[in-house]
Amino acid sequence: MSIGVQGLAKRFGGFEALKNVSLEIPSGELVALLGPSGSGKTTLLRLIAGLERPDAGTILFHGEDATRRDVRDRQVGFVFQHYALFRHMSVFENVAFGLRVRPRHLRPPEAEIRTTVTDLLKLVQLDWLADRQPSQLSGGQRQRVALARALAVKPEVLLLDEPFGALDAKVRKELRRWLRRLHEEVHVTTVFVTHDQDEAMEVADRIVVMNEGRIEQVGHPEAVYEHPATPFVYSFLGNVNLFHGRVAEGRAEVAGQEVAMPDWAAGLDRDAVAYVRTYEVELAREPNGSPAIETVLRHVRRFGPMVRLELDRVEDGQVIEAEVPRARFEELGVGRGERVYVKPRSARLFPR
Amino acid sequence: MSRAAGAAGRGAGGGGGGPPGLAAPLRRCLPGRGRAGGFWEATLAPRVLAAYRVSLVTSLVAASLNAVFGLLVAWVLVRYRFPGRRVVDALVDLPFALPTAVAGIALTTLYAENGWLGARLAPLGIKVSYTTLGITVALVFIGLPFVVRTLQPVLQDLEAEIEEAAASLGATRWQTFRRVLLPALLPALLTGFALAFARAIGEYGSVVFISGNMPMRTEIAPLLIMTKLEQFDYAGATAIAVVLLLMSFALLLCINVLQWWSRRQAA
Amino acid sequence: MAGIVTSRLHAAPDRTSALTEPRPVRWALTGVALAFLVLFLFIPLVAVFTEGLKKGWEAYLAALVEPDALAAVRLTLLTAAVAVPLNTAFGVAAAWCLAKFRFPGRSILLTLIDLPFAVSPVIAGMVFVLLFGTQGWFGGWLFDHDVKIVFAVPGIVLATTFVTFPFVARELIPLMQEQGPEEEEAARVLGASGWQIFWRVTLPNIKWGLLYGVILCNARAMGEFGAVSVVSGHIRGLTNTLPLHIEILYNEYNFAAAFAVASPLALLGLVTLVAKTAVEWCQARELARGAGAS
User: Which pTM was predicted?
Assistant: First the structure.
């Protein structure tokens, strides 16, 4: 089922959680709502679920207005960050709950409930734990039970609120892969909230980047990463260096370097901020004629094939981060406290 | 009133109160301090058994009423916002703070046949003061805060997510309450019930006035202890007290088990 | 903690259908709950004052200043003046031991503190009669030395002290347990002596809980009926406390006077409720300030 969101707004007391948000989610997609805490991503998810009422705007399910529809009638599966399992019920009963509370004429017979629940538990690879109590499970297992429970009612939309947020790094990684595969299997429209860019990148078909109650950018993971639409997206995804400069008449001057900016040929003269990814800087021991930023190497950390460097700009003490392949670093042969000249290989400019 | 009725009752209990075959051991037991077998005679005499029954039945009914209304009051106080909520919340502790004798005479006067509430109930054929119903009313008064105060923090700490999960799975509000919330509240509810019950069994001050103290009918066990003490029948009084104590300790044990259970469930 | 509570208060009005009931249900439930409370708590409370004033102010005041009533007031005040400080000192000491240390017999001590709650007041009084009555365990010795405990003032004070003994300790134990030993340990590391730690660290931390415990203990001490009734002997002007005086007046069908004498006790109960609310308010404010500072 496709989801449409038009002009959605929500405030909590004096706090504007969501400001005029519009979004289209095609049927069957796996979408990540990505943003820092307080960006409105959870609010958006809860509005889609019907767990909050919007102050303005409409929510469309399959093109039909569902804004006023009760949670119970929305056919959504919701998975909570802290699982929200029913403590006094066994794993089996938790998963069966959604089927057992149906009105009598819609309730499947006991045998059917049994097979449905068993199948779902097999799907989440927990059929051997059916009789356990939730308190006897690990965090990862609990989250999978919560997922099975949400899927039991055959939802048209699956919504997950920071589903792996409360788990440790290793389990989180496993579950990500597993969610991806599960989505391929059941193919239900899925929206999940996360503040972890790696998670969004790895799992989602599309990423919705949110900040301060607004959507900053929507797109495929590579597109969002390679072509950030706003300064916020640039700084939120991946490590970047930030340089202040000026733009005028189709040319920009950043960190002493001239960069051609044909987009801005209109001739305004204004301040700009340049974003440079840590792996998009060129390092040299000598300035080699062309203008470069003079820095001092402060700190070196070796991570697998890459080396991370922390450089202090001589001019104003600004910290510049750089990432270079190990071979390149060995070739450079600099040690701590020595001079290094930095040139951005490419940059993305945003006028201020 | 209570003392006069008690004195009259004492005569009745010795004379025509029960079948003569059973009343005889009671009569023997009254002066019979230190005799072997006196304990069982004192604990099992019909008037004593009747007092246990009155105490147990009224306490049980009162604690059950408290469980129902205490849950309702705690629910309303925690979940809903209405003007005067804080005052009402403070008022719940009144039975803890008001001396029992004061509560006793106030309830008796209100529910007496010419009292403010009693006069309204009399035409319906409902007599409260000087009946077991009156005892129950006093015990409801005494026990209410136990249930409310045990439930309130548990209700406060219930995660909203549990209810949201139930709703997203299609459960109606009533189904959510019955299948999700009530089981989560059950240990606290039972603890509150047991506390109210334990308090009710031992209660004296608020009951003596409203009960009328008729032996075999509205005489509670603590009052019978009092009566026996006044007659210097220490053995008889001790015997009844031992049985009451055993009941209290059994309840204390239940409460401890319940608290252990609820802690385990919370983990 | 305080933050969670306040956010809940704000969240309450706009809860969605997933978290609350339809308005008519809400109103009906609130209505029934309030009706129940009015019937069982509010009306009896009001009745004390209206019945007391039924025969007018003059009769009301006359009942209060009558010699037997004044004697009862004096005895009640005396009893509270002994029982409350004793139980305060004991309660603080017991709570300190139980909350801060682990020792053999700790759970037995905990159970012992709860004992007066679990035992019928009548039985509590009876125990003193069995111990100190003329035929009691120490009765002979007491009689020989011309000491009267049961049916005299010492018995009343003893019984009251026993019955009110858990209030301060029970109020403090959870509070002290929650606070843990860290602050005391920090003070010890900084070189404070035991007394300094108690006066400067422990006491300021528990002052609100202690205050409420003392108020509650006092209310119960002045209002105790069952246990005192057993040991008093009901001697007018000598061993009658206020609740016992009320009983006598009531049994003599002197209802207006009984309620008149009951009204100061009801007022004391109300003051206790107000004090409790105030203490909770102060505590919440202090907690909120602490959370804001850290």
Answer: 0.84
